[in-house]
Amino acid sequence: MAKILNYGSLNIDYVYEVPHFVTPGETLQSKGRSIFAGGKGLNQSVALARAGGDVYHAGAVGKADGQLLINVLTENKINSEFLKRRNEASGHTIIQVDDNGQNCIILYGGSNQTITTEDIDETLSHFEKGDYLVLQNETNNIESMINKAYEKGLKVCFNVSPYSDELLKLPLDKCSYLIVNEIEGSSMVSKPADTDPYELIDELTKKYPNSSFVLTLGSRGSILKQVGCDPISCKSFKVQAVDTTAAGDTFLGYLITNLATGMNPALAIKCATAASALAVQTKGATPSIPKANAVLDFIKKSKVDVLVDKL
Ligand code: RIB
């Protein structure tokens, strides 16, 4: 089985339950606070592993406060031999979750921003052609990660979140998979945010012809467009969301492991969609990521055909 290396962020999420997102000048009483292990990188590693992948997580946590994050890697049988311990505090977030389960997030990078080119060289020396590298935009030195992994023949899967136009300077043409939402995708090709998703995929594939795309469309669903193949469209399952945090990470982790283990792409995206439908029904980031047997049960019980010709 190909190894999956996630060079990714790990954050301590401070989650506040609020009636609505705080507005300028307002002091808002929260209804509750919880502390969860999160970070796009860690969430994705947990989903990659729970889907059945052989997962390695590299990155950096704080010596003083990182144990909560390391425990999650261990509990999920994710190899952490390439994870560094730093003097800087671990990355953390302040997350507001409103009564509709929607969130907004303030991110502090902390030790996620301390990855050196030496760390990257050493870590990548343990991986080879055909292995996967999963990245998100919450760590530093991403350019070097992409370039070195590409030189070695790894398949680079880059989730461009959180997006900034600076990302366009990265060697994105070296990524095998680019995972974008509609706002990120339209910014990448200078199109309006409400561009038709299939037109958007055409524009993205024109600009990056060697990359496959995963376009996520929130509650509408998602589209997988692999190089040389027709797009596969998948509607969302209709469920009641209590917390959408990590739903996208769950989707991505399941999709990449399923593709890396040779699952048929249509089934791979359907399972990933089911996994994220389960994730939004539980509070917190890593605690909400389902196990593979729960995902299969959910698909068996659901009578809806989510694979469609067009969204
Ligand atoms: O995608 C959700 C994650 O984004 C949270 O766990 C938080 O840490 C932020 O990185």
Describe this structure in words.
The protein is built from 9 helices and 14 strands. It is α/β, with parallel strands linked by helices. α5 crosses α6. It is 31% helix and 24% strand. It has a 10-stranded mixed beta sheet, sandwiched between helices. A 4-stranded mixed beta sheet has the order 3-2-6-7. The structure holds alpha-D-ribofuranose. Residues 11, 13, 38-40, 43, 93, 105, 107, 138, 245-246, 248-249, 285 line the site of alpha-D-ribofuranose. Alpha-D-ribofuranose (RIB) binds at residues 11, 13, 38-40, 43, 93, 105, 107, 138, 245-246, 248-249, 285.
Q: Provide the β-strand percentage band.
A: 15-25%
What global shape is seen? globular
Count of strand segments? 14
- End-to-end separation in angstroms reads 33 Å
How would you describe the oligomerization state of the chains in this entry? single chain
- Identify low-pLDDT runs: none
Order of helices and strands: EEEHEHEEEHEHEEHHEEEHHHE
| Count of individual helical segments | 9
State the share of residues found in helices, binned by percent.
25-40%
The largest β sheet comes out as: 10 strands, mixed
Q: What ligands are attached or bound here?
A: alpha-D-ribofuranose
Average of pLDDT: 97
Strand order of the largest sheet: 5-4-1-8-9-10-11-12-13-14
From the alpha carbons, calculate the radius of gyration and give it in angstroms.
Answer: 18 Å
